[in-house]
């Protein structure tokens, strides 16, 4: 076995926790430790993480091949930059679909200058779902693909709501309404004295919610509503060559942070094999995400 | 628009016909013509193909960037070699799973020497299904994937039966028996005087059938039983990181030659973008199969 990949996790939210587990579960990886903001350094780690090296600067964790950025999506590109400039590979699950072209382009320049690799939008959507949509297109170039999420808690949407002043806790549920249309059910617990109408308006105006039918409900306790199960159904009816009615469907029912973190770890492996630059998942050969040698996977999968 | 890709088709069976259609339907391709064996050159083309340039040697079709090999699977690697040696890219849908590592390795050396690209096993299974299986693995590294084919006519199996002496016409139907197990229903029309038992034994001993429960039925007319619809259900239940019960499913219901030919045309596009060598589909970035520029696809699919 060749040298293990030394990976660190930045951030300790849902995905950070799952990323630590996924690194430890991967035989070809070695967990270098956790990077937290200075202000979080004094917080006690959960007992399950006792003994885990923690630092405010990745340099204090020894040599690190790649960092998994489990940071709030909107802060992630700026954080990625600081690692890439130092020549450290990054993997993120940045999920603002409309900004991915720009973020990839910006990080591409930084990564090449730093001699590093960034894998961007490496979750399940954007991420592995994007690869499935690419497969659908190459198999049936004319047709319509619909992506139907949920029912399930959207982490990106939930984090966006939590960032709104006056919100103590929140949960955003995605409900599939068919043909790629979704309803957002947002459950909010307010800070004492917060104005519900102001919070509701801030949610409806947020780019995460502005394009979907969104319902906001105020509750006392969000915690008891939480379940991180999620899913998607993607469908395409299209034409191959001149032959219509080709039908494709991809469905999954998954633990959301666990899948996101696993895709990030697999993408970290790919990052070790790519030339400097920034990549989305559709730009990477699928076998590059898998451990070991190519011919073994061809024999098993092809 | 950049220069069109000039492609020729070799062979005029089910896949050859569909490949001609798929090339004509692709805006970024130009059909150079059809290559047939010398012995077939005098045969009249179907009326729909009137005016199509036909030659026994690809050199007589003008400059050709890539050939789609719609030839019997077992003859295909040797035929690919003759093109790669001349520096012409090849795409095939070679489908003997157990031989793909060896064929790719052999064609890799020839392709590199000829400065050409070979995309091997570029159908749907092996092919796009292989990419889905790779996705399943990278999302949930521990678990079991089952691939359940059919019901549908298997072209590779059908061609294998037709090659047996004494067989006038044949059809091999694949029936899913669950958990990746299949039954093969083979319908055979015999040549006058052929020995049914000898034909049956030859079928059961063929590597295409030796591992599956196979039933052979003798009929007068195979033609009226034929339908080229096919399908697959691939399922995986696995573990992401340390989280079990992640569930994935991919299903399609398709016109078999049309999908195979479309995948080959998409792979021909990828062949234009790859460094010399031989590749299976899991070794190629998914976006390389799609026309136009990468950022447009990132904006649409990621």
Automatic annotation (TrEMBL), chains A, B:
Residues annotated as domain Meso-diaminopimelate D-dehydrogenase C-terminal: 123-180
Record carries keyword Amino-acid biosynthesis: yes
Classification via Pfam families: DAPDH_C (PF16654), GFO_IDH_MocA (PF01408)
Amino acids binding substrate: 174, 184, 230, 256
Enzymatic reactions: meso-2,6-diaminopimelate + NADP(+) + H2O = (S)-2-amino-6-oxoheptanedioate + NH4(+) + NADPH + H(+)
GO biological process annotation, one example: diaminopimelate biosynthetic process
Record: residues binding NADP(+): 36-38, 93-95, 122-126
Transcription among keywords: no
Pathway: Amino-acid biosynthesis; L-lysine biosynthesis via DAP pathway; DL-2,6-diaminopimelate from (S)-tetrahydrodipicolinate: step 1/1
MF-aspect GO terms: diaminopimelate dehydrogenase activity; nucleotide binding
NCBIfam families: DAP-DH
Subunit structure: Homodimer.
Name used for this protein in its record: Meso-diaminopimelate D-dehydrogenase
Organism: Hydrogenibacillus schlegelii (Bacillus schlegelii)
Record lineage: Bacteria, Bacillati, Bacillota, Bacilli, Bacillales
């Amino acid at each position: 076995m060749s040298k293990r990949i030394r990976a660190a996790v930045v951030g300790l939210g849902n995905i950070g926790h799952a990323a630590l587990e996924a690194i430890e579960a991967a035989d070809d990886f070695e967990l270098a430790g956790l990077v937290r903001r200075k202000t979080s350094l004094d917080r006690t780690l959960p007992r399950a993480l006792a003994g885990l090296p923690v630092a405010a600067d990745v340099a204090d964790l020894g040599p690190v091949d790649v960092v998994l950025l489990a940071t709030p999506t909107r802060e992630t590109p700026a954080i990625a930059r600081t690692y890439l400039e130092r020549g450290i590979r990054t993997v993120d699950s940045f999920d603002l679909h409309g900004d991915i072209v720009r973020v990839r382009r910006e990080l591409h320049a930084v990564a090449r200058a730093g001699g590093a690799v960034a894998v961007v939008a490496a979750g399940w959507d954007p991420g592995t779902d994007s690869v499935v949509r690419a497969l659908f297109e190459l198999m049936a170039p004319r047709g319509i693909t619909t992506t139907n999420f949920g029912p399930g808690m959207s982490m990106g949407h939930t984090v966006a709501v939590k960032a709104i002043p006056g919100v103590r806790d929140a949960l955003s549920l995605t409900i599939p309404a068919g043909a790629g249309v979704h309803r957002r059910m947002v459950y909010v617990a307010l800070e004492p004295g917060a104005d519900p109408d102001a919070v509701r308006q801030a949610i409806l105006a947020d780019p995460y919610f502005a394009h979907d039918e969104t319902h906001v409900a105020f509750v006392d306790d969000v915690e008891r509503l939480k379940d991180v199960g999620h899913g998607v159904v993607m469908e395409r009816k299209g034409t191959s060559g001149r032959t219509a009615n080709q039908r494709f469907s991809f469905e999954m029912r998954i633990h959301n942070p666990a899948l996101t973190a696993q895709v990030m770890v697999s993408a970290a492996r790919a990052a070790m094999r790519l030339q400097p630059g920034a990549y989305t998942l559709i730009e990477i050969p699928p076998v590059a995400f898998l451990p070991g040698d190519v011919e073994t996977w061809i024999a098993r999968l092809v």
